[in-house]
Amino acid sequence: MAFRNYILVCGGTACESSKANAIYEAFISELKAQGVSDEVQVVKTGCFGFCEQGPIVKILPEDSFYVQVNPEDVKELVAEHIVKGREVKRLLYVKEGSRKHAKVEDIEFYQKQFRIVLRNCGFIDPENIDEYIAREGYAALEKVLFEMSAEDVINELKTAGLRGRGGAGFPTWMKWNFTRQAESDQKYIVVNADEGDPGAYMDRSTLEGDPHSVLEAMAIAGRTVGANQGYIYIRAEYPLAIKRLEIAMAQAREYGLLGKDILGSGFDFDIEIRLGAGAFVCGEETALLASIEGKRGMPVPRPPFPAVKGLWGKPTVINNVETWANIPVIILKGGDWFSQIGTADSHGTKVFALTGKIRNSGLVEVPMGTTLREIIYDIGGGIANDKEFKAVQTGGPSGGVITKDFLDTPIDFGSLTKLGSMMGSGGMIIMDEDDCIVDVAKFYLNFSVDESCGKCAPCRIGGRSLANLLEKITKGNGELADLDQMIEIGNAMKKASLCALGQTAPNPILSTLHYFRDEYLAHVVDKKCPAGKCKSLISYHILPDKCIGCTACARKCPVAAIAGERREVHVIDQAACIKCGVCYETCKFGAIEVR
Amino acid sequence: MAKMTLEELRKLRDTKKGEIQKRDIAGKDSQIIVGMGTCGIAAGAKVVLDAFLQELDAHKVENVSVTQTGCMGLCYVEPTVEVLTPGMPPVIYGKVDAAVAKAIVEDHIMRNKMVSDHVFDRPSADILKDGGK
Question: Among all residues of chain A, which has the CA nearest to that of B38?
Answer without folding.
Answer: A84
